[in-house]
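Protein modeling request. Please complete all fields; requests missing the sequence field cannot be processed.
Requester role: graduate student
Desired output: 3D structure, token encoding
Chains: 1
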Amino acid sequence: MKSKWIASLLLVLGITSQAADVLLGDLGMDSDVSKEETSFTCVAAPPPAPPAQHSSAEGLPPLPLPVVPLRRTEKKNPPRPPVLIAKISTKNQNDWATNPTDAQNLLKWMAKNLNVHFSDMTLPDGQIPTDPKTVPVLYRTGHDAFAFSPEQKEKLRNYLFKGGTLVLESCCGRRAFAEAALREIRDLIPERPPYRLPNDHPLFKSYFDIKDIKYRPYALKAGAQDGDPAVIGIDIGCRTAVFFFRWDVSCGWDDQPDTPKHRCLGYTIETAKQLGANLMAYISSERSAALPLSQALDFVDTDKATSDKFVIAQVKYSGLWKCREAGLSMLLSNFHEQTKVAVKFEREEVALTSSHLFDLPFVYFTGHQDFTLTPAERGNLAKYIRQGGVVFAESCCGRDSFRKAFQREIAAALGGAQLEKLPATHPVFAYPNNIKDVQPLPALAEKLKCKTRIPPELYGINVDGHLGVVFSPHGLACGWELAQCPYCGGIHSRDALALGINILANSLLQ
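Delivered output (510 residues):
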């Protein structure tokens, strides 16, 4: 019954086996080199023994009487650093333990080169935690096909939605594991489709600015391409909660070179370690962003009637459109408080092909990634704007991939019309908040190389006498949600709310 429900949901969302083929299709799954993988692979070694635990008052081993044992006076080892990552073990050691010290060696390398200190642990697959506070990262690597049990899936899903991160990796680039991993993560969070991380994802710049992805020779022969990260992820809100490495990183973490008997389909050792360090940096920073304050607030429409209320709907499209779910409610709450305009707090979602689109005066369009609208979606979008509707779009977290896609798609919908920068004298910056400058979040300030407040930046398209499209290249929704988003190329919450309120007010007054 559950499998039928998942299949139906995936069909509704357009996430089919064909989507899986697209994600893995150009990643060497059917190459001749991949088909020879079982002949040249790493061999399992015993997992490392856990560190011995000593109490601070432990004495020396027994000595012949009548000598009295003396307390040790030498310095003890420092306390063990906090656990960052737990490697999931199974009964088949030949599957998961071929690089037994991969995570441990990565953390040692990070301690030496980055001066950050964490520890790892091994966790049986029957002991998956539900609280990410104790173990922030779960790591599953292997050679063979696998499947999580229903109980494991339920625990993993709860773990991820509470802020945990799951990392999967095809050790040696093994196909069977790769196919199983993609299937399992799709089933784990069916409402959040997996996607290939673009080059502007924080994973590739959270510590090292990785612009030159390099692969081992046999990975290149199998179909990997230098410069293409080939990492698959699943987002929960603005946070990537699941990372899947189709090409091997563990051999690199474990300093395993290629030999006549070991042909690893993976990243070079240097790239693997840089990716690993960036991965841990990203996860560590995003832990505070997993549960923003706004998600603890409950926005309720005490009056269920919608007439005479300002209603906003979020646009659904084929890309990853659901980023910050509580942001609109926070914006509407502040808009109502400042202007006293009655609003509907309940979130609405509308497809561009829906006739309901034309019942709405204002729609919100956001995302992180590249996307392409269908001809029908473009046609309806243009018709909606020309009939007086307003489209407000923002590049969530300031992602360039979405910015470029929205610029392209809105131009295609409106016959080539281009977004133009709104002047500082535009009414949208004047009422009800007089906005002269805004405070960039740290990631945006670093990108812009600025240390002070910056002028507000909005773009628009005038259609038949009204501002039909408003676009912010900088992220606003993280600010609306009061979220601590370390990699957000956006605006501080106070200024983000002020801009959002002005945009809503301008749409009503024009």
